[in-house]
Amino acid sequence: MRLHRLGIALIFVTPVAAQQTKAVEQMAQSVGVIGLFFLLALSSLVVIGWVALMTALLPDWVRLKADLLQRRQQAAFGVGLVLVLALTVLAALLGQGGKVFPPLGILAVVLVLVLLTLLAVGWVAVVWLVGQRVVAVSGWELPPFAAALLGALVLHWTAFLPVVGWAIALYFAFVAVGLWFLR
Questions:
Q1: Confidence of residue 90 (pLDDT cuts 50, 70, 90)
Q2: How far is CA 28 from CA 20, 23, 40, 92, in A?
Q3: How far apart, in whole angstroms, are the C-alpha atoms of residue 143 and residue 100?
Q4: Separation CA 95–CA 113 (nearest Å)
């Protein structure tokens, strides 16, 4: 008798549970989309702030590196690719050695921080050039600072594109690192 009641209860409860599951899945997807929107919005503010700060602190350096980048972008990519791969492998090896001898682990962390610093500061010159190209293609007349901020937004939002966004961002990350070592 109990099994019969349980069977009847399951017949009536299962469709309700399935509807609730669909509602929960739709809500989870909505939360994911909202979270992605806020990630994009907040990270855009951070990128704009960083570009504005570095452009204000080092305007001559940014212009010099952007001009150099315009002439030697492929060389910057090659140097950056080799440097990032070499420093990443070296940091991984030092990190493993840090298990035996802790100062090697500290050196690995320092290498990663140096690599991130090279990327963050070189990125400013890259977005400066991207902004100048966007302004030239669109026919707008913007001051260089506004063009740099526009380039920062364009390149940052491009990184969020499905399928190809990561590749574009990675290419320009290698360029940003390699830019430091070109004259």
A1: very high
A2: 12, 9, 18, 37
A3: 54
A4: 13
